[in-house]
Amino acid sequence: MSLLSAERIDIRSRNVGSSEVAALFGLDERRTLFELWHQKAGQIPEPDASESERGFWGTVLEPAIAQGIAERRGWKIRKVRRYVEHPAVPGMGASLDFEIYAHPRGAAPLEIKNVDWTVAQDWPEGLPPLRFELQVQHRLACLPSRPWAALGVLIGGHQPEVFEYDRHPGAIARIEREVAAFWRSIEENRPPEPDFERDLPALEILYGTPRPGTVLDLRGDRRLEALCAQYESARVDKAVAEGRKRAAKAGILSVIRDAETAYCEGFKILAPARPGGEVSFHRKPCRDFRVFVRGSREES
Asked: In terms of CB atoms within 10 Å, which of 38, 80, 122, 186 comes out highest?
C-alpha cells in the first residue's frame, strides 16, 4: 500500500519534484527524460517508491539517520510533512525530508541519503554526485527565504557525512528554466527522443496494446531496416548482445508504436497482443514481438 495520500500523489504528479529534477539534465540513474515526460503527460504510470524495497527501507531508515546526524552536529531538526510548491514557477514543487531549525544561519532543509560504500567510493574527490546537489538547489528554489541547505549521507551503514550548500542563484535559475521548458514541451506535445539503451520498459508500457488488424508498409524506411537488422544480428548472438537487442526493440517500438504488423525493406514485424492467463503462474497480458527476415522459413 502506498504511504502517500491520494491528494499528495495528485499534487506530485503535477509537479517536477526534487527527486525528479536530475532527469531533466540526463543525470538520473533510474529515470530518463523520456520516461519522466510520459509519466507527467499521464501516458504511463508514475512509480510508487513506497512499494519498492528501496523506498520501504528509505522510509524506515531515514528518520534514524537524520536524528543521528543531528545529534552529531548539535542540530535541532523536525520532520516536514507539507508539500512546498514554487511561488513563481508552475509545476515545480518539493516534499522536504527534514528541516533544521533554531540554527544561527536560519532554518534549512535537510536531505537524507543512505548510500552503499561501493557507490560512494566512486564519487569524484569524495563529493556527492551532481544529481544530489540539483535536488538540494531545487528545494532551495521552492523555499526562497532559505539561504542554505544540508545533505546528510550515511555511507555503508556506519559512516555519516554532511555537506552544506549555500543558495546558488545561477543553478536555481537554470533549474527553473528547465522545469518551465519541460512543462511547455508537454503542453505543445513535443516528447523527447527515447534513449534506446534505457527506455524499453517505458516504450513497452506506452505501446503495450496494439490495434488489432493494423498493418504498416514501411518499405523504404532505412532507419527501421537498420534497426531490424540490428535486432536480428543481436538475436543470433544473444549471449553477448542482449543489450543491443533491447535497444533495437525500443527503437522499433518507437517507430511502429501501436501497429500490430509492420513491413520495411527486407523485414516483417509482428507485434500482436498476447493474452494473459494461468500457466505455472498468472501471466499478465503483453505484446508478442518477433522480427523475421523476409522470405525466411520462420516468416512463413
From this structure: 38
